[in-house]
Write a structure and sequence with these properties.
about 375 residues, alpha/beta, TIM Barrel, seven-stranded parallel sheet, three-stranded antiparallel sheet, 10 strands
Length: about 375
């Protein structure tokens, strides 16, 4: 059984169980460079217009050699756009957000729509051109190279809500959502339309799945009331999936959503999402058995291994126990692809990355 069939079975698109639970992982630049040098595999980076997404869609050649069962592609920065770093270390990305490198992830220090109040203010903003030269060069190349053997996921993370608050600022957007300020719903519509165009072009290149990414939860609860999500955001995700299915009826819609969001999962399934990622561990409502019992018939799960503390700091025995438990519960009767809940950072040692992969293979086999 090759990786493609393994993931299609895990995602319930083919009948029967896979031979083992499929594996996926993302590596930061430092880990990618380390393993690339160690294994003698050149590492290619696809620079995404939103910088942190770069590490979702880069180093695919390396990751499949290490054991990943999927290839993840996405839009890259246009050939016509050149990043210029200022003396203070900041830069403007293609969305015209002023960025700086934080301790782990990039941070927005100046929002292009920080002063938006009306639809007229919003109309003055221009999203990057979906058809700019070079935008999908890597996506097309990787899809052609790996399509027969691996499931190809098209990544449009930082999709609607996250893109909106990175353009406006989180605090302002949340206040304006509660106040129902004039520009809010049109902004969500504009973000959805832009990422729909990106997704449609990835579908044209041949991807099997579209990976949305918006975080609606904190470590303890939802960021916004469920009613606000249903009124202001839910219709746009539903419309996006409908349009993707018009382009390819077999497309697999996947949602990455951090935080304690169990309260929204029925809505998320109604929208049309089939795979829920990352099943963030350690937050209310996300115990593996609760997830499997309450939502196992509605979703396949992807993720669930803690990269915040367990992978960098836990013992080898604790990591092995957690992997075994997550596979035995979330992978029971299929419906699970195991991975860390987010990108592995340089606080995770290379040895721990290898141990993670080895333990996933050890405990992931299904009895024939």
């Amino acid at each position: 059984m090759n990786s493609r069939e393994r993931v299609l079975r895990a995602f319930k698109r083919l009948p029967g169980l896979p031979d083992r639970v499929p594996i996926q992982f993302d590596l930061c630049r430092q880990l990618s460079d380390h393993f690339g040098k160690e294994l003698g595999i050149p590492v290619h980076y696809t620079e995404n217009p939103y910088e942190d997404v770069t590490y979702r869609i880069s180093a695919n050649e390396l990751r499949v050699a290490m054991g990943s069962d999927v290839v993840i592609v996405g839009a890259s920065v246009s050939d016509d756009y050149h990043i210029v770093k200022e003396p203070d270390g900041t830069w403007l990305n293609e969305y015209q957000m002023r960025m700086r490198q934080g301790s782990v992830y990039v941070e927005v220090v100046n929002y292009p729509l920080a002063h938006v109040e009306t639809t007229s203010d919003l109309e003055a903003y221009r999203f990057p051109d979906p058809d700019a030269p070079g935008r999908f060069r890597d996506a097309e190349r990787l899809t052609k190279k790996y399509k027969n053997d691996f499931l190809i996921i098209g990544d449009i993370e930082v999709t609607v809500f996250s893109l909106a608050h990175q353009l406006v600022g989180m605090e302002k957007l949340l206040v304006d959502m509660m106040m129902e300020t004039e520009y809010v719903v049109p902004l969500f519509e504009a973000c959805a339309e832009y990422q729909t165009q990106i997704g449609l072009r990835l579908i044209e290149k041949g991807v099997d799945a579209i990976w949305f990414g918006d975080d609606f939860g904190t470590q303890m609860s939802l960021i916004i009331p469920p009613e606000t999500f249903r009124e202001q955001l839910k219709p746009f995700y539903k419309r996006m999936i409908d349009r993707f299915r018009e382009a390819n009826p077999d497309i697999i819609p996947i949602l990455h959503c951090d935080g304690a969001v169990a309260e929204l999962l029925d809505d998320i399934r109604e929208i049309g999402f089939e795979v829920f990622n990352p099943v963030q561990p350690g937050v209310p409502g996300h115990l593996p058995q609760d997830m499997k019992d309450h939502f196992g018939e509605k979703f396949s799960f992807w993720g669930a291994i803690d990269q915040q503390d367990l992978l960098p700091n836990g013992s080898d025995e604790d990591l092995e126990k957690d992997i075994s438990e997550k596979i035995s519960i979330l992978g029971n009767c299929g419906g699970y692809m195991i991975s860390p809940a987010h990108i592995l950072q340089q606080d995770v040692s290379p040895d721990r990355v290898i141990l993670f992969i080895e333990m996933c293979k050890k405990y992931g086999k299904y009895l024939s």
